[in-house]
Amino acid sequence: MVSSQSSKTPMEPRSNFKWVLLFLLATQLGCQLISCSVTYDSKSIVINGERRILISGSIHYTRSTPEMWEDLVMKAKDGGLDVIDTYVFWNVHEPSQGNYNFEGRYDLVRFLKIVQKAGMYVHLRIGPYVCAEWNFGGFPVWLKYVPNISFRTDNEPFKRAMKGFTEKIVNLMKSEKMFESQGGPIILSQVENEYGSVGKAYGGAGYNYMTWAANMAVKLDTGVPWVMCKQDDAPDPIINTCNGFYCDDFSPNKPYKPTLWTETWSGWFTEFGGPIYERPVQDLAFGVARFIQKGGSFFNYYMFHGGTNFGRSAGGPFITTSYDYDAPIDEYGLIRQPKYGHLKNLHKAIKQCEPALLSVEPDITSFGNLQQAHVFSPKSGPCAAFLSNYDPNNAAKVTFNNKHYTLPPWSISILPDCNNVAFNTANVEVESTKMEMKPSDSDMFSWEMFTEDLTVSDESSTFTATGLLEQINITRDTSDYLWYTTSVDVGSSESFLRGGEPPKLLVQSMGHALHVFVNGEHSGSSFGTRKHRRFTYKETINLRAGSNKIALLSVAMGLPNMGGHYETWETGVLGPVALYGLDRGKMDLAWVNWTYQAGLKGEAMNVISANTNSYMKWTQDSLIGQKQKPLTWHKAYFNEPDGDEPLALDMNSMGKGEAWINGQSIGRYWSTYANGDCQGCHYAGVYRPLTCQLGCGQPTQRWYHVPRSWLKPSNNLLVLFEELGGDPTKISLVKRSTVQ
Ligand code: GAL
């Protein structure tokens, strides 16, 4: 029997070590003596013959650095978690077909071994579709170009590729003895992700694909159960599970399956232009307690640590680089209070009830319309009770077992002995901590810049075609950027040249951002939104007599991660494009010759790396004095600040672009302002992200995580590409610290 996962009290390091040893012995050796197994029954997941209440949290290995993993996992364990849940991200592991990468931040096995060493279990959500606000929902972009492919349906090329990757991961796990059936930490695996409603819309093909995916997974014979989330018709032996803000209305599709909640949303993600969403911990704890009192036995915080969408990994469009998620461990790996501590107390109270919860069904009695008692009374052993008040406005006084209890609004009291209240979801006894971004002692020095040259086209990297082409088909998502350039001849007799109304340029784009340049000058920019990718630019432009160069820089801001057949969604300038106001009337530019260039010159020249080739014409910023220029590369150096606080770049003075530290991308930045309704937030009542919004009127994201492990003591190189214009000399390195 393995019992070392229960985290009733924080352990001393020495005894911790002892437990880890015992755990390893029990699993690794034990599995040769008794057979290790994970099964399930109507009550719970059953590990080596023992029913378990399992508390889980999502930490995505790709969203932090390997140097952070152990600390994150230990904090999760200390917060009372038994299980770490992660998706597997196909696109980082197979960046081009048949070429695999499991190094660095993508070292899945190293991450899982850290979880194992902590004496915790793993839920491995292989997908390989993951959603997750991750670029293209985790699918590699090359997959879109496999002939005759259609994603997530009964389509042979797709199924072949999906089976190939799923097998690859399962085989890797087996070879590393990662499944619990082999003595490893993985107790559950997920195939697909929230396919239910998508599949229904695809009719018979959807159903066939779903059953194919289920059978394919089961045949891989991992020795641990598979789950499908939000899949009411998941076939046996797969367990269908719930995702949501609350899951107490959920029951699995067979009476012999346990009630599992694979995504307990602890907050919500952020999109550029939107506010920050917080979920009050009182309501989160209330949601969890409601689920447990109903008979649920596994729940997983999505996210327990959200982390950072480094590089161009954010899904989209417009998901921010920060994936903080208002999680109990913040983006930087610091504990968020009171969220973390209040949940830790909740977990302790739930674990005190574990024997009762796992033995019997609850007896439910009502005290009134909005108050109930759920009582678990086993034949032997203590009884446990959950007293609930669903009234969002009023506290309730109830009498239970001849004792009086006051229940705050929208709360549950947990009584592990049916007598004393160990925990109430609305009574937060943990002190809040405030985090602050403090200036560091490290200044940026030796600023230099160079502007993307709009006039000279290197013919080897461009091509010309008639008409407007789809962006991702050209870039294959190797860059966010695609240039569309054409020229327009203007006769010298045009009336606008003699004081008439200047012409207007209309450009419609399918996403996601557009910068318009006329004869090398920035005319303006337009942006879509996450929900409305299509947008129109219509502005007056400065034309002259003779030939005019119109250059449109289309910017992709993360590929979609969800939606029916999103692989068919188009990106870029697809028309109409037209000039209005010339003497001849409308001039259609959709079918003229356009010259295309994928990516920026700076990208082609690899300016982000310290070994930039010498013919790059960097100029010292102070000599130029044109800091607001669009399409400009900037670079500077800095020394590592002392201390061990997490670091961030304050990008408040900048517009929009991407930043790299010592050659590694810390992500896309954009100082766009948050639109929202920040009217205050109350924990009681049914929660939705709009309930608690923060940061309205401020840049959605101002600070960008700089992992300490990416730095050397001195002369760290910061490079950034600024699309709109900003003052890089005001960029500063800050330390994230707790306010005392
Ligand atoms: C879920 C999905 C997750 C994530 C979440 C929102 O529906 O399964 O992958 O996208 O929504 O953060």
Name the bound molecules: beta-D-galactopyranose
Oligomer: single chain
| Total helical elements | 13
Q: Radius of gyration over alpha carbons?
A: 28 Å
Kindly state the number of beta strands.
40
Q: In total, how many domains does the architecture comprise?
A: 4
Provide the spatial order of strands within the biggest beta sheet.
4-5-6-7-8-9-10-12
**In angstroms, what separates the terminal alpha carbons?**
44 Å
CATH class of the largest domain: Alpha Beta
Name the shape in a single word: globular
Helix fraction? Answer: 10-25%
Q: Give the structural class.
A: alpha+beta
- Percent strand: 25-35%
What number is the mean pLDDT? 93
Could you characterize what this model shows?
The chain has 740 residues and is α+β, with helices and mostly antiparallel strands. The chain folds into 4 domains: 2-7 and 26-336, Glycosidases (TIM Barrel, Alpha-Beta Barrel); 363-424, no CATH class; 435-450 and 606-739, Jelly Rolls, CATH 2.60.120; 453-599, Galactose-binding domain-like (Jelly Rolls). The chain is 19% helix and 30% strand. It is built from 13 helices and 40 strands. The strands form 9 sheets. The protein has an 8-stranded parallel beta barrel with strand order 4-5-6-7-8-9-10-12, surrounded by 4 helices. A 6-stranded antiparallel β-sheet has the order 32-21-33-39-35-36. Strands 22-31-23-28-25-26 form a 6-stranded antiparallel β-sheet. α2 (66-78) packs parallel to α4 and α8 packs parallel to α9 (339-352). The radius of gyration is 28 Å and the shape is globular. It starts with 12 loop residues before the first helix and ends with a strand. Mean pLDDT is 93; it is low at 1-15 and 24-28. Beta-D-galactopyranose binds at residues 130-133, 193-194, 243, 263, 269. Residues 1-31 form the signal peptide. Pfam families: BetaGal_gal-bd, GHD, Glyco_hydro_35. Its EC number is 3.2.1.23.
